[in-house]
Amino acid sequence: MSNNREMPLTSPQSGQDDDDSLNIGEYFATLLSHKWLIISVTLLGLLAGFFYNFISKPVYRADALLQVEEEASGLVSFEALGALGESSSSVDAEIEILRSRMVLGNVVDRLRLQVVAAPRYAPVIGEAVARRFRESGVAKPWFGQDQLAWGGEKIEVERLDVPDYLLGQALRLTSGETGGYTIEDPEGTWQFNGRVGERLQEMLPGGEELALFVSYLKARPGTEFELLRNSRIDTISALVGKLSIREKGRGSGIVQIALEGHDRVGQKAILDQLMYVYVRQNVERRSAEAESTLQFLETQLPALKEQLDAAEAAYNSYRLEEGSVDLTSETQSVLASVVRVDKELVDLQQEREELRQRFKPEHPRLKALDGKMARLQRKRAELDKNVAELPGTQQKILRLKRDVEVNTRLYTELLNTAQQLRVAKAGTVGNVRIVDEAAASTEPVAPKTPMILAGSLVLGFIFSVVLIWLLRSLRVTVETPEAIERNLGLPVLATVPHSKLEDRLAKATKTGKSKMGLLALEDGEDDSIESLRSLRTTLRFTMAESDRGGVLITGPSQGIGKSFVSKNLAVLLAQAGETVALVDGDMRRGHLHREFGLEKNLGLSEFLSQDLGFDAIVKPTIVEGLDIITCGERPPNSSELLMNSRLELLVQALLNTYNQVVIDAPPILAISDAATLARYVGTTIMVARAGQHPLAELEQALKRMSMSGIKTSGFVLNDLDTTRMRYRYGYSGYHYQYKYK
After folding, report:
1. What per-residue confidence (pLDDT) applies to 300?
2. Which of 142, 153, 571, 709 is the most exposed place for a label (fewest CB within 10 A)?
3. pLDDT at res. 356
4. How far does the chain reach from its first CA to its final CA, in angstroms?
């Protein structure tokens, strides 16, 4: 039996209909009433957080800084906005280059990131256990699982070449004795033996080749490892997903590269290799233009040298034929002008060809060069007129001398330019530089234990609240006297608050540690007893309206505290100076004899089944004026016994002998005994336990009594949580206490 006793509570009189909707106080009271569920679920959430933190692999972060130096460029007109270039590499472009397959593919190839080799661990906890192994050797296997790794195992694979159909599939490698191992495919269709430090190369059943080189292996014989080779493109894509590249401050040119992973040393090595490959390609890219120009000059120099040699030979030959012919001062002046103009025209033509590769024809610089070349060509035409006026011999020697000097200048300048390009190529530096070398964090950046534990606490609390909401949604129960009166149309004669002392007394009586368990005798000022005193007063008026005495106390189901109400009400009636007979009408599970320290035999069942006298079954108690009739030994047919005419004689004799008769009846929805007993008394009270009964259950109990011709006088609402009610109603609910202390 559950004993739950509540304090008297009166309905709010302020006119507010607090029962029509749940306020914040009701929510808080609901949570408070389920505090142990909340605490338990929250602690489970915290334990789940600890477990998650235990099995989570630590994540380390490695980062580095690069500086991208922008090349200064002059002012550009509006026409230059559509030009193909002259601006320096943007930071965004450099970031995309860092993410490109050109760079990352080189990193993947150099570090052999396509090959993944790791021990096999036990599910869930295996890797976490192995990670915490700190000794020098190899851990002993747990649970006899010696094929799994438990700490200290390590493997290094320098090469793993497999056919395309095995890409992404895990191969099983099993360590053997003295450096040997066995490798097989997932289906077990083939198996090969190899040794550490020796290359394994075998032909697979399909004709493809398998190549493997294991450089290091540390494990117990029989330990299994998983070897995996991913495709190059998948490995690059996975690496791109892990990389974080961003510019620190818009326009700063400082690029931060970060990489997170479980291998602290491995993340640093990847970043080191990434920066090396990127800086190298940057330098090679910037020296490519010089290389291209140098190759062009080296193809032009031999032809120009031949032209120079031919010009010199023609000049010397003519002088030999005509004798030593000297140029006059006038001819020398014209020659110098012609050579200078031709040299400027050649220079401008080369510059124009370079700009034409970079700009559109409408570009101002190209137009300016075209203007200069036009002026020089006009000047050259004037010089040709001056040459035509010279004597024939002077004209011929001038042309030959001009060819020699022009070709000599061109050849010399090309030689100088080629040499400068060679020096520039050798000393080329990129427009990026490493500011901070790659460095990995000494402590894991994840998981963050405080955040995980705090989050698990919050989630545990939220889950407990959701669970309470679901429980309340699935089981809508009556919790207030107002709900009973409004929906069932019957008065609540008393509301009985919970009593912790009654819990202890009931437990002690049930376990045999105490011979009696009467709260009214242990603590007459307990709030529950005060509530029953109000019931005693109310019963005087209720019973006065009936033409028959006696009160029967029942309820819809067991465990609602009807026996608690019956026995303590009987004690209170006796303490008021009345003679009281308490009848334990539950011949199946009656237990009132324990609370009074009596034996249950020679009780109601014996009276109804045997020819016993009235005095043989009435037992006195330690309470003056209170006698009890116990339930007696359990009969096989209690319902049939109650149909015996001796029951009416017994009740009538009790009513004639005692001022008050209180019958503790079985629950009405379980068996019909309560309806049979209620025929012989004038007042029937239904006990309901707050928060336990759906409204339909109470309606069914009343209907069952009504069908038997019994009118229920009212309810006693037991086990009312006054603390919760106080939160529910706030200041509009009242809880009265008056004690002599």
Report:
1. 74
2. 709
3. 75
4. 32
What are the tens digits of pLDDT across the range 354-370? 677 677 778 888 888 88
Amino acid 655 reads L
**Is residue 404 located within the same domain as residue 470?**
no
DSSP-assigned beta bridge partners for residue 156: 216
Out of 170, 197, 229, pick the residue that ends a domain.
229
User: Same domain for 521 and 640?
Assistant: yes
**Amino acid identity at 333:** S
Measured from the Cβ of residue 342, the count of other Cβ atoms closer than 10 Å reads 19
Please indicate, yes or no, whether residues 674 and 731 belong to a single structural domain of this protein: yes
Tens digits of per-residue pLDDT, 272-324?
A: 999 999 998 888 777 766 666 667 667 777 877 787 778 777 777 766 666 54
Q: Note whether 153 and 38 are same-domain residues.
A: no
How many Å apart are CA 446 and CA 58, to the nearest integer? 6
Tell me the pairing of strands 224-229 and 115-119: antiparallel
The 3 state secondary structure assigned to 83-97 is CCCCCCCCHHHHHHH
Give the chain's length.
Answer: 741
Tokens 């011949």, residue located: 587
Among candidate residues 392, 383, 403, the one with its CA nearest the CA of residue 315: 403
| Residue pLDDT, tens place only, 85-117 | 333 457 888 999 999 999 999 999 999 999 999
CATH of the domain at 386: 1.10.287
Pairing of strands 254-261, 243-247: antiparallel
On whether both 617 and 509 belong to a single domain, the answer is: yes
In angstroms and rounded to an integer, the radius of gyration of the C-alpha atoms of the chain is 53
pTM check: above 0.85 = no
Q: Strand 660-664 and strand 580-584: pairing?
A: parallel
> Is the Cβ–Cβ distance between 475 and 692 less than 8 Å?
no
CA-wise closest residue to 230 among 357, 309, 93, 115:
115
**652, 609, 611: which is closest to 631 by C-alpha?**
609
Domain boundary among 207, 229, 251: 229
582 & 715 share domain = yes
Judge whether 69 lies within some domain: no
Residue 152 domain flag? yes
User: Domain of 615: which CATH number?
Assistant: 3.40.50.300
The total of structural domains in the chain comes to 4
Preceding amide of 635 cis, omega within 30: no
Co-location of 609 and 499 in the same domain = yes
The crossing angle, in degrees rounded to 10, of helices 329-356 and 364-388 is 160
**CA 173 to CA 162: how far, in whole Å?**
14
Q: Report yes or no on 315 lying in a domain.
A: yes
Q: Is the confidence at residue 336, as pLDDT, over 50? A: yes
For 33, the domain range is: 23-49+448-474
> Each residue of 393-421: pLDDT tens digit?
666 666 677 677 777 877 787 777 767 66
Beta strand pairing call for 551-554 and 432-440: unpaired
**Would you list the DSSP string of 126-139?**
HHHHHHT--SSS-P
Tokens 């505090």 belong to 35
Same domain, 195 and 319: no
Provide the 3-class DSSP secondary structure of residue 320. helix
Confidence of residue 731 (pLDDT cuts 50, 70, 90): very low
Where residue 376 falls among pLDDT bands split at 50, 70, 90?
confident
Closest by Cα among 406, 395, 409 to 318: 395
d(CA 736, CA 728): 16
